[in-house]
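Example record for the data management plan.
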Amino acid sequence: MIRIVSIGLGLIIVGLAGYLSFWPVPIDPLAFETPNNPGLVGPYAENERLTEAERIADGLLNGPEDTAMDSDGTIFTGLLDGRIVSFDPDDAVATFTEVANTGGRPLGLQFHPDGYLVIADAFEGLLALDTDSGEIRVLVDSYQGTRMIFVDDVDIGQDGTIWFSDASQRWDLHDNITDFFERRPTGRLFSYHPGLDELTLQLDDLYFANGVALGPGGAYVLVNETFAYRISRLWLTGPRAGEHDLFAEALPGAPDNLSFNGYDTFWVAFAVPRTDAADVANGSPFFRKMYFRLANLLNATPVVAHGFTVGFNLDGEVTHNFQSASGEVWMTTSINQHNDGLYVGNLLNDFVVRLPLDGAE
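Corresponding structural encoding:
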């Protein structure tokens, strides 16, 4: 009997080893040198400032990923089911309005100087919405004849040029966790000039291109590389024009959306903080595949419930730190400065968080 049990356990072990080592997987990972993780200490120390903050439109929303404010002070956001909704942040229940539905998943939002709302939709591309009529038109959904599959975030220059990210050429929003396991740099940064109908590839080979923000005077543009834990910078003017460097690196989380308040602060939302599990086997494609197989077998994920947003000054130094270490607010994807408040969006909660600027120290 003992021998039979031993044989059975041996077969199970051999079978498991074979599955973890050789079972076909869809990913084709590259070796990735993991940057140092500074951890949630010092300027990144854990706190509950997001947990304690005011919740806007509580219960009315479903994954308000980003926010934009029009000239009347009305907040617009995009939801999981494709809806673009608006509301007065001081009276959300009475003013809540469905403006349109993209039919996809609206992510980054920004108002164009010409008055329309530009939407980075993960499935439908770069869109323009007339917020009065609800009419939607496609600005960009392909490059050189190939469809974009993960348009992500957007910012707009004073001249009307739209800067936007295409997160991945391999995996769409439904499979973004697969992109995390693969760690293959296929993200891109584009600019689009509506008046000229001119689309330009500005940067490629990015590790999941995400948040986009133009710097002071349009001197440079920043783009978050979510799965490399860094913020890249492309210089647009001056003696360094055309150069590409890093604004911040070795970050303690996966940076999502990015915004600039126009004078001294870049706001960064981290979807999740980094964990040891997130960086397992990054240096070995073979073991990365094993990790992917094991995660699928156990239905496990390295994602943790922890809200995390940060402000950086123009030198890339941390000036603000708002977290929900308890996870009551989590999967934080955007932080924008509108009038006298900071508005924090997310992928999975049913509210937007508002922080008063006079308390944002």
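Summary line stored alongside the record: The first strand starts at residue 54 and ends at 56.
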